[in-house]
Amino acid sequence: MAQVFVGIGSSINRTKNIQLGIIALQTTFGELAISPVYESEAVGFSGGNFYNLVVSFESQLTAKQIINTLKKIELQQGRPEKAIKFAPRTLDLDLLLHDQLIDNSLDIPRAEILRNAFVLQPLADIAPQLEHPTAQKTYRQLWHDFPKDQQKLWSIETLINC
Q1: Angle, nearest 10°, between helix axes 14-29 and 63-76?
Q2: How far apart are alpha carbons 125 and 145 in whole angstroms?
Q3: What value does the mean pLDDT of the chain take?
């Protein structure tokens, strides 16, 4: 069984879509470990703020199979099939990690882990002692070293009631 980490984000009907995304992931993959939820500004385009978090679960599926499943869940939650990269989202599900797999063709580990506070902070919350496969530092250390003035991030106290 692989330990899998998935980033979840939404900027459209954020609370509802995050909750529906978590329910779909629980239904598909079983028990989830769920990080706190954070609000952040859009990155790469002008748009509304996002809610972001990270979930973890165990799976026997390959990384490619998980990515395909995540895309199906996104479509079921109203994401356009040919959505442009930098745009508002009903639901965005990204495979961040699949054990210690390094696969550049699948962007695993996901590059955003080291670039975006809204990915790194919840990952550090949920797996502080886990080491990044290429950076060779724990997520706690990576978050500690991250320039906090680079991106605004706000903790959302109560959101997940699934």
Answers
A1: 140
A2: 15
A3: 90
